[in-house]
């Protein structure tokens, strides 16, 4: 018996299934689109690099989240999420697809001012990235139903105005390369999610804004920003 009860972490709905996908860990890939790296004056990385978000920071698509404390520059980032469905460790890129359960639209919400301030001091990005309600995940589509990750359009609108627009083939490191690389450092297993990076066009939000992100073939992700709590 525990000393106290923790708030439950919601399972992510899966299209065509009555049971949801439980989340164990959330890995995020930084600077995985060249144009996004360029818009902040950053170099394109030679290999993938990562930060993490705790599952407690996750919110399902369609929710409303308050503007977070400690920031005046809260940004949207639209991403493809990969849900791992089988154990994988030190796999070759050509074997990575067998570990994928499915894909989803996701938002990596970011306290940009805190991220940049900590980065400039060569400190971890946690204050900027692992924010309550900052990992917004849409329903998962199984890999077999989605097909290969190729030139699908990835877009984000803010109050109906397009802010981000790109294609998945412009990722610097593709899904297979990311899984292969990450599995060299972690024993990945079902319940692990990977957010694969955002294209250019990221920007700030304000209370009252409605964010919607889409990827061809997946259920959209949607978030409403409320007043600070």
Automatic annotation (TrEMBL):
Pfam families (UniProt xref): FAA_hydrolase
Xref: InterPro entries: Fumarylacetoacetase-like_C, Fumarylacetoacetase_C_sf
Top-level lineage group: Bacteria
Domain spans labelled Fumarylacetoacetase-like C-terminal: 26-225
GO molecular function, one term: metal ion binding
Gene3D superfamilies for this protein: Fumarylacetoacetase-like, C-terminal domain
UniProt keyword terms in alphabetical order: Hydrolase, Metal-binding
UniProt entry tagged with the keyword ATP-binding: no
Name under which the protein is recorded: FAA hydrolase family protein
Organism of origin: Pseudooceanicola sediminis
């Amino acid at each position: 018996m525990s000393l106290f009860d923790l708030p439950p972490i919601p399972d992510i709905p899966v299209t065509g299934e009555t049971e949801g996908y439980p989340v164990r860990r959330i890995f995020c890939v930084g600077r995985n689109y060249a144009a996004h790296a360029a818009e902040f004056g950053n170099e394109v990385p030679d290999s993938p690099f990562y930060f993490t978000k705790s599952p407690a920071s996750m919110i399902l698509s369609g929710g409303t989240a308050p503007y977070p404390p400690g920031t005046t520059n809260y940004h949207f980032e639209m991403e493809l999420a990969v849900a791992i469905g089988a154990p994988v460790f030190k796999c070759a890129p050509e074997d990575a697809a067998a570990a994928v359960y499915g894909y989803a639209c996701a938002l990596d919400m970011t306290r940009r001012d805190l991220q940049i301030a900590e980065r400039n001091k060569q400190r971890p990005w946690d204050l900027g990235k692992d924010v309550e309600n900052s990992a917004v995940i849409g329903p998962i589509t199984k890999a077999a139903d989605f097909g290969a990750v190729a030139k699908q359009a990835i877009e984000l609108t803010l109050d109906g105005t397009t802010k981000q627009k790109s294609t998945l083939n412009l990722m610097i490191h593709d899904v297979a390369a990311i899984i292969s690389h990450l599995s060299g450092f972690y024993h990945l297993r079902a319940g692990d999610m990977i957010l694969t990076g955002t294209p250019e066009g990221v920007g700030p939000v304000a209370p009252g804004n409605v964010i919607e992100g889409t990827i061809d073939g997946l259920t959209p992700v949607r978030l409403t920003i409320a007043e600070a709590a």
